[in-house]
């Protein structure tokens, strides 16, 4: 239902042109979940916003960027060609593609009740008004596990607890009946017990409603729970992608191995955590060659600092960008 090819995004900034997303490609089939994982600054959210055409005016899509979405009616839409004010784009947002954010107040206006905001989405995308829209809004709030939804619907967002606001935001996104949900770090701000509840809820709703999902997180452990496919991003590029189980069992890219080693595990509480050394650079200071080379313990001398690795097909749906898989050897 969605294919993204060679997506690149540049921003005009005071420091010059920066490229937070460079040559990103992936595909998503109906009802499947793709996890986008990487540290803060890896380009995950910019990729999601590009798909919704929610980027600021300082952003430009690369000339070769293609984002093709096949809608309910089977019509292919070139998202990159839509003008930000096009009616087709308004229909796409919410009704076909919904988005939920890490911070629920980014979706809710503080001056309207959650009921006002959910019924407005229902009226816009499902054509229901009045009592029918309110009944559906209450049903959606109940579906996301909010107790006493008949009472909660008339509350303002700031009067709900963090976990409840997050659930209400999921209800808001789902009330428009999207076929694809983009969830940008939807559980990061929650404590672990509420996080587990919200992940359970999202998995259940996805099965019930048959939606596809792009789930964005910095946490590979969370991605492993919700996604069938995973794409690992580093400095705006997908460095490795493939089926989640195969990728976690035998990661091919040193950065993916670093992310896995950094996941805290109960069976090694005595040992030390192993964070990926160093920090992700700013997109304005993108290193030459492989962008990960300043932090990579396996970098090949004379190669990794100068040559950008091309994608290598490992078979079984797995692709990696790393010179270790191209048969290169260190140059003395
Ligand atoms: Fe490390 Fe080189 Fe592979 Fe980049 S290309 S991840 S620097 S080994």
UniProtKB/TrEMBL annotation:
<keyword id="KW-0067">ATP-binding</keyword>
<dbReference type="InterPro" id="IPR017871">
    <property type="entry name" value="ABC_transporter-like_CS"/>
</dbReference>
<dbReference type="GO" id="GO:0015833">
    <property type="term" value="P:peptide transport"/>
</dbReference>
<dbReference type="Pfam" id="PF00005">
    <property type="entry name" value="ABC_tran"/>
</dbReference>
<dbReference type="GO" id="GO:0005886">
    <property type="term" value="C:plasma membrane"/>
</dbReference>
<comment type="similarity">
    <text>Belongs to the ABC transporter superfamily.</text>
</comment>
<keyword id="KW-0813">Transport</keyword>
<keyword id="KW-0547">Nucleotide-binding</keyword>
<dbReference type="InterPro" id="IPR013563">
    <property type="entry name" value="Oligopep_ABC_C"/>
</dbReference>
<dbReference type="InterPro" id="IPR003593">
    <property type="entry name" value="AAA+_ATPase"/>
</dbReference>
<keyword id="KW-0472">Membrane</keyword>
<dbReference type="InterPro" id="IPR050388">
    <property type="entry name" value="ABC_Ni/Peptide_Import"/>
</dbReference>
<keyword id="KW-1003">Cell membrane</keyword>
<dbReference type="GO" id="GO:0055085">
    <property type="term" value="P:transmembrane transport"/>
</dbReference>
<dbReference type="GO" id="GO:0005524">
    <property type="term" value="F:ATP binding"/>
</dbReference>
<dbReference type="InterPro" id="IPR003439">
    <property type="entry name" value="ABC_transporter-like_ATP-bd"/>
</dbReference>
<protein>
    <submittedName>
        <fullName>ABC transporter ATP-binding protein</fullName>
    </submittedName>
</protein>
<dbReference type="InterPro" id="IPR027417">
    <property type="entry name" value="P-loop_NTPase"/>
</dbReference>
<feature type="domain" description="ABC transporter">
    <location>
        <begin position="2"/>
        <end position="260"/>
    </location>
</feature>
<dbReference type="Pfam" id="PF08352">
    <property type="entry name" value="oligo_HPY"/>
</dbReference>
<dbReference type="GO" id="GO:0016887">
    <property type="term" value="F:ATP hydrolysis activity"/>
</dbReference>
């Amino acid at each position: 239902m969605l294919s993204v090819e060679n997506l690149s995004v540049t921003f005009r900034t005071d420091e010059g042109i920066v490229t937070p997303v460079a040559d990103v490609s992936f595909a998503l089939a109906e009802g499947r979940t793709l996890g986008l994982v990487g540290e803060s600054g890896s380009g995950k959210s910019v990729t999601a916003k590009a798909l919704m055409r929610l980027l600021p005016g300082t952003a430009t899509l690369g000339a070769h960027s293609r984002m093709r979405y096949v809608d309910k009616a089977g019509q292919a839409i070139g998202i990159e060609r839509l003008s930000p004010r096009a009616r087709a784009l308004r229909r796409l947002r919410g009704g076909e593609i919904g988005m939920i954010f890490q911070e629920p107040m980014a979706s809710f206006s503080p001056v309207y009740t959650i009921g006002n905001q959910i019924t407005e989405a229902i009226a816009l995308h499902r054509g229901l008004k009045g009592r029918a829209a309110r009944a559906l809004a209450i049903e959606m709030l109940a579906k996301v596990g909010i107790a006493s939804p008949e009472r909660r619907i008339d509350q303002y967002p700031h009067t709900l607890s963090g976990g409840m606001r997050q659930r209400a935001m999921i209800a808001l996104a789902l009330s428009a009946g999207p076929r694809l949900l983009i969830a940008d770090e939807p559980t990061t701000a929650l404590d672990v017990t509420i996080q587990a509840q919200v992940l359970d809820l999202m998995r259940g709703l996805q099965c019930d409603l048959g939606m596809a999902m792009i789930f964005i997180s910095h946490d590979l452990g969370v991605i492993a729970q919700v996604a069938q496919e995973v794409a690992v991003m580093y400095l705006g590029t997908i460095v490795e992608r493939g089926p989640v189980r195969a990728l976690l069992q035998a990661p091919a890219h040193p950065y993916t191995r670093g992310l896995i080693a950094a996941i805290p595990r109960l069976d090694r509480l005595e040992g030390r955590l192993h964070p990926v050394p160093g920090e992700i650079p700013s997109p304005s200071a993108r290193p030459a060659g492989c962008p990960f080379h300043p932090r990579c313990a396996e970098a090949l001398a004379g190669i990794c600092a100068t040559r950008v690795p091309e994608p290598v097909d490992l078979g079984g749906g797995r692709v990696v960008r790393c010179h270790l898989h191209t048969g290169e050897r260190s140059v003395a």
